[in-house]
Amino acid sequence: MQVFDLFDGALLIDKPVGPTSHDIVEAIRRHFRINKVGHCGTLDPNATGLLILLLGRATKLSEKLMSSDKVYEGTMKLGETTHSYDAMGDLVASLPVPPTTLDQLNELASAFVGDHMQVPPMVSAIKKDGVPLYKLARKGIEVERKPRLVHIYNFRFSDYSEPIGYFRVACTKGTYVRTLVHDLGQKLGCGAHLANLRRLVSGTFDVANAIQFEEAVKLSPSELQQRVIPFFKLVET
User: Fold this and answer.
1) Catalytic residues
2) Which of 8, 18, 151, 237 is disulfide-compatible with 57, CB 3.0–4.6 A?
3) Is 76 in contact with 165 (CB distance < 8 Å)?
């Protein structure tokens, strides 16, 4: 009979703005002295929401769980384009926002629904000849990126107050929401960038069942164990 450690499983974290996904992983690993900790799907430092940490033997399930579909909500700022396509990037263009309605935004968004060839942003962890693109971007180098097939199940705006649009998107893994927003801004003619992003769902896991990162590091080992989704349940997912 195979014996599993108390920390073999998944921990759902509600990530705050600021730390990287790697920062969260390292903090949990060090604080609870867990040898193996990984995560399923990177969130940018300024993004919040569901970050699935895999502990112990559960790290072997990373590829399986990372392949799940995702749901996000966020805000888009029209009229400003940045080099990273989000609020953390340098401003590269600023244009007047044309008269725009919520219906017009949703009409533009609907064109992205379905199979969609998306060009990843330069500021990303995708590698070119072994070098992450974001490192090349820091040097002012831009290289050709191959479009990747993604699927957008739903992309809809719930509100718009110039220049901010509020949206929700459901998509396959590997979709860059900031690229989606950037591309929509280009179609509108004034540019746009991703102002805020929050991941709500990944596969069968929901941020409603996650614990705030600040609270997680205050738990005792036994309290943390109660929050861990056991390895055998992940296998059945």
Assistant:
1) 44
2) 8
3) yes
